[in-house]
Amino acid sequence: MTTLGITGGRVLRPGMTVERADVLVDREAGEIVDVGSEVGADADERLDASEAVVLPGLVNAHTHVAMTLLRGYADDKPLDAWLREDVWPAEAAMGPEDVRSGARLGALEMIRSGTTGFVDMYFEVPEVAAAVDESGLRARLGHGVVTVGKEENEAREDAAESVAIAEELDGAAGGRVRTAFMPHSLTTVSDEILAEFLPEAREAGVPVHFHANETRAEVEPFAERGERPLTHARERGLLDPADFLAHGVHLDGEEIDHLAETGAGVVHCPASNMKLASGTAPVQRLLDAGVAVGLGTDGAASNNDLDMLGEVRDAALLGKLGADDASAVAAPDAVRMATAGSAAVAGLPGGRVAPGAAADLAVVSLDRAHLTPVHDPVSHLAYAARGGDVRHTVCDGRVLMRDREVLTLDADAVRATAQERAAALVDRAA
Amino acid sequence: MTTLGITGGRVLRPGMTVERADVLVDREAGEIVDVGSEVGADADERLDASEAVVLPGLVNAHTHVAMTLLRGYADDKPLDAWLREDVWPAEAAMGPEDVRSGARLGALEMIRSGTTGFVDMYFEVPEVAAAVDESGLRARLGHGVVTVGKEENEAREDAAESVAIAEELDGAAGGRVRTAFMPHSLTTVSDEILAEFLPEAREAGVPVHFHANETRAEVEPFAERGERPLTHARERGLLDPADFLAHGVHLDGEEIDHLAETGAGVVHCPASNMKLASGTAPVQRLLDAGVAVGLGTDGAASNNDLDMLGEVRDAALLGKLGADDASAVAAPDAVRMATAGSAAVAGLPGGRVAPGAAADLAVVSLDRAHLTPVHDPVSHLAYAARGGDVRHTVCDGRVLMRDREVLTLDADAVRATAQERAAALVDRAA
Fold first, then answer.
1. pLDDT of residue A367
2. Residue at A419 is within a domain
């Protein structure tokens, strides 16, 4: 084997403790082979981690990555008006080349902020998969199905595409691309379509990812029938152990029990929930109930970045406010949510720095004014570090960024193309 | 005059519009003399602002800067336990050299994140003033008075020191240091002490800055007597037009009226209010009522950084969640709060890029993946830019940071000393 050594730093271990150690990686296997004192000294390739912390690569468990093209295009509007007046018209004008450009831009931003894996729900999914392939990241991808407002034929085609894409792309990019069947939400996909296509997804062996309980308006139609969305979802065959939903803002005790009992996961998206005034997810209650919780940025248009370290801070701060308890969603829990939590929920490798785990790693510099002094590196990861503090990013044993230089994408070209395409896109949409 | 030209960029104007323009500065006067096309081309010294936005230097209107030494020392605890078990014992062990070191570290962090002015409530204030002087920043400083739990003599000495410091230091550092009388809060300073020393502060012509309505527990003793804290404050002679309070989380309609009627300002501290689970300030209601609102980070121990661009994002996001309205605290309002708003509330120069205004400026790079594409630079300043994106910082006509190199402080030495002093401090406190 040829090896990569990450040397001279401190390492965040699965128990959320930090110790001085090197990390040794088998590059071909894409696996961590050792963590310990000086184990990286004789590696074939080395990354300096002095005055830094080596942590599992961050996993963004819910996003719409090509929406980076719409970053800052429309802000400060309620979800409904924002979707109808701005987002949907722009997305209707988006072609495959736009999706590719936006996905490349998002991949560049993710690598620069220490994210190594992500979950994406969008359209033109082969373009997203191509960006994953060239960038060196890993991802779980799917085609989002929407049936409301569509003719039956069109709705069935959309759902069939989601299953077909999940079957075709699973295992692409040398196994770094995994897939899911992705009905958009419980209110935007009809029960009939779900009943027809869910068995096909189960047959294909892919999990199901969907939005649920994001806004009060989304829960109301169920409440009017004396039902809860996740009870409905469970009865309809969703909430298998590998399934996971985004948001889970408005959940009652029974729904939290459904999640804990089934093992289905929740992806918390605190910044998006704040920006769209959706509400505050009961994160500490979910953790206390033993629900699998990951963290996601949602699309860049409702955030407006893909910085998972920023999202960790948002989760820790909002979790306290929401629980009315300053000890809720403590720093180690918030950091775990963005690493092991997201990886488990998304069913992606990575999430821990330990022998045998995937070599998906981020190295965060601590030699900065805003990270001085260092009383507790985990506190800094939760509250004070940002994407710009990431020094190196490694995925599947390959160095994607070294000393802030991204090696797999041409940053200037990606940015220039994205700027051009975004400007043309909003011109077409207007 | 010798001139500084900031050239080739876009400029954020007081109306929160952005236009392509240069900024020309009179270095000796520390003033902006012109804003317009090519006006900086022949300046004696130039700063490149291509692919960047020139904005007013950010003003952190409420902090305790030396608490940078306690960054990450104790997290995830309620305000009361955090103060009693961690912060107060550590502060009791802090000497003048620690305050100097922490203030230098904070100044370094502020310069690196585009902050040019701040308001500080602490002790050993001459040490903070010295750090302001050497760093080139400007500030309004005061000694925080606490009388609860103290003998009468000691309490009176503390209050007398706050007035004396305000008198002595006002105008220091070539006028860049201004001062205030700073009774810590309405519940930690007795009415008797306030009645005795407030007239002295008025005589000295300095404003009053204090914490108010931060937590529910702080409001309760007033509510039990059928009173509201700010009604009490107004009756006690506080809330002059130049006075300003930090937090204002738990305010009723009558108190908002007091603020609007008197012109006294409020400093919103969203991150600290979330981290300590204090609650959500009614920011949009304050803005609608015409109250002067600024923005502050509070101390780094409850944030955990001094990044005002991050705080702008926190204010915009939390403002929406708190108002249950995604259109509340819109991007331009949040950016204005951190610039013109904070400057007005704190009574410091700066806050706008216009001829005649103080040359306090930050230049924020837009040539980054997470700031691409640029549909609207104001959106990026509110939602996606962070302190690490600041390219140059100018205060009072002097370049404090050029291309991310801080010119007034030795960054490595400041960090090394702070790390050493912080470690020794918590050893002594434990």
1. 97
2. no
